[in-house]
Design a protein that fits this description.
By secondary structure, the chain is α+β, with helices and mostly antiparallel strands. It contains 13 helices and 20 strands. A seven-stranded antiparallel beta sheet has the order 17-16-13-14-15-12-18. A five-stranded parallel beta sheet has the order 6-2-1-10-20, with helices on one face. A three-stranded antiparallel beta sheet has the order 3-5-4.
Length: 407
C-alpha cells in the first residue's frame, strides 16, 4: 500500500508515523511544498513548543474547541493528552506541566519535539519529499493520481494535512473533489486599538481581567496583556477564537468592556474601597496596591478620570469613588482591526466536518482520502489545543488509512 501524506507539519508527521506504525508493510511518503518541515512546531510557545494541555478529561477538553467539538468527541477517546504524553515520553521526551496547565518538553526547546518526530520518521523508513507541491488529486478506480511538480504518480491512499488557509481559494483543489468548505477566518488574534492611549502601557499584564464584546454574548476571563497594538493575552485570544466568525462579520470594528477585577461585582468593589478608606484614609490613592491591578495600570486609570494621584483616599469623595469603581469593572475600549501571529496563524473554517468520518478521518465524499489537522474546520484556543487536535486526527487518519480498500 502506497500512502501519500500531503503536508509536512505536525499533523502530517503524526499521520505518516501512525500509518507506518499500524501498517508496517506500507510505503509512506510525506510531500511538503516548501523546503521546511514542522515550521509551526518550531515557533510554537515562543520556541518551546506547547505540545498539549494537561486536561485529561475529554468532556472538559472539548470546552476549549470553538469549532470541531462534535467530531473530536469521538476521536479524543482514542487519542487524547494522556496518549500524547505517553507517546512522547515513550520516545525519551518527557513533558512538564506549567501553572496554566500548558505542557512543554522539559528541555524548553521545540527542537526536542522536532528531533523526536524526525527520528521516528527515519526509524520507520518514511520518506520526506521537500519542495514537492501537489497541484491536483485525481481519484482513479482503486487508486489516486497525484500531480507532484511536473510529475504524475499513483498511490493507494492520500492523507491531506496541508493546514489552514486564510483564503477559500486555498481549498479549491479539495472543492473540485466535491468537498464543502467552511469559509476561513482568522481565529487567534490580538485586538488593535489605534485610537486608545492604553497602548502606552505595552508590556503590562492584568492577571485576572474579564473582557466582554459589546453587542454580543462573547466573554472571557484570564490574563490580559497590553501591547503596542492594543490588547492580547489568553483572555483576548480566547475571545478571538470563540468569536472568530462574528468578529469577522463586524470587520474587526467593535467595542469591548474590560473588568480589571475579573468577576468582582460593583458592591464587592465598593466594600474594598471602604476598607481602604477606613484603614488607610490618609494615604494617596496612587499608592493603592491590588494584585489584579498593576501600578502602571492604576495610575493610567486615575489619569483617565483626571483624578490627581496625590489625592488622599479620605478626600476622594463619593463621586470620584463611584467613577473609579465603574472604570475598574466597566472600562470601555474601541477595537479597529486585528494582528495575527504570522508563524502560528490559526484559522477557523476548512473542510466541512459533516463530510468526514469522526472515527477514521476518512472523507465521506472520496473513499480512500483522509484528513488531519487544521485543514479541517477544527480550531482550539491557545494553550496546546490545536497541536492536540493535530496529534489526534493524525493518529486516527494514519491508523485507519489501510482499514479497507476503496470501492
Amino acid at each position: 500500500m502506497k500512502v501519500a501524506v500531503i503536508g509536512g507539519g505536525a499533523a502530517g508527521y503524526f499521520a505518516a508515523i501512525s500509518a507506518k506504525a499500524h501498517h508496517s508493510d506500507s510505503e509512506v511518503v510525506i510531500f511538503e511544498k516548501t523546503n521546511k518541515v514542522l515550521s509551526k512546531v518550531k515557533v510554537s510557545g515562543g520556541g518551546r513548543c506547547n505540545v498539549t494541555h494537561a486536561c485529561f478529561d475529554v468532556k472538559d477538553l472539548l470546552q476549549f474547541y470553538p469549532r470541531g467539538g462534535k467530531l473530536l468527541k469521538k476521536a479524543l477517546y482514542e487519542f487524547n493528552p494522556n496518549h500524547t504524553v505517553a507517546w512522547f515520553e515513550g520516545r525519551g521526551v518527557p513533558l512538564k506541566t506549567e501553572a496554566d496547565n500548558r505542557m512543554f518538553p522539559i528541555t524548553d526547546s521545540s527542537q526536542t519535539i522536532i528531533d523526536c518526530l524526525e527520528q521516528e520518521v527515519r526509524k520507520l523508513g518514511i520518506r520526506v519529499s521537500l519542495s514537492s507541491a501537489i497541484s491536483a488529486i485525481r481519484p482513479l478506480d482503486h487508486r489516486f493520481e497525484l500531480a507532484v511538480n511536473k510529475e504524475i504518480i499513483q498511490v493507494d491512499k492520500v492523507i491531506v494535512t496541508t493546514g489552514g488557509s486564510n483564503k477559500i481559494e486555498g481549498y479549491k483543489w479539495l472543492q473540485s473533489l466535491g468537498h464543502a468548505i467552511v469559509p476561513p477566518a482568522p481565529s487567534l488574534f490580538t485586538f488593535n486599538m489605534p485610537s486608545e492611549e492604553i497602548r502606552t502601557l505595552m508590556g503590562v499584564v492584568a492577571p485576572h481581567a474579564r473582557v466582554r464584546v459589546l453587542g454580543s454574548k462573547l466573554e472571557a476571563t484570564g490574563p490580559l496583556l497590553i501591547t503596542h497594538w492594543g490588547m492580547s493575552g489568553p483572555a483576548v485570544l480566547k475571545l478571538s477564537a470563540f468569536g472568530a466568525k462574528w468578529l469577522a462579520e463586524k470587520q474587526y470594528a467593535f467595542s469591548v468592556l474590560v473588568s480589571w477585577l475579573g468577576n468582582t461585582k460593583e458592591d464587592e468593589c465598593r466594600v474594598i474601597f471602604q476598607e481602604v478608606i477606613s484603614s488607610s484614609g490618609n494615604t494617596m490613592v496612587s499608592n493603592w496596591r491590588n494584585e489584579w491591578v498593576p501600578k502602571r495600570l492604576w495610575l493610567f486609570l486615575l489619569t483617565k478620570l483626571e483624578i490627581d494621584p496625590s489625592t488622599k483616599w479620605n478626600e476622594l469623595g463619593k463621586k470620584n469613588s463611584n467613577r473609579l469603581i465603574n472604570l475598574l469593572i466597566n472600562d470601555e475600549y474601541r477595537v479597529s482591526g486585528k494582528t495575527t501571529f504570522k508563524e502560528e496563524f490559526v484559522t477557523c473554517g476548512g473542510v466541512d466536518l459533516s463530510q468526514v468520518d469522526p472515527l477514521t478521518m476518512e472523507s465521506k465524499v472520496v473513499p480512500g482520502l483522509y484528513f488531519a489537522g487544521e485543514v479541517l474546520d477544527i480550531d482550539g484556543v491557545t494553550g496546546g489545543f490545536n497541536f492536540q487536535a493535530a496529534w489526534t486526527t493524525g493518529f486516527l487518519a494514519g491508523k485507519h488509512v489501510g482499514t479497507h480498500a476503496r470501492n
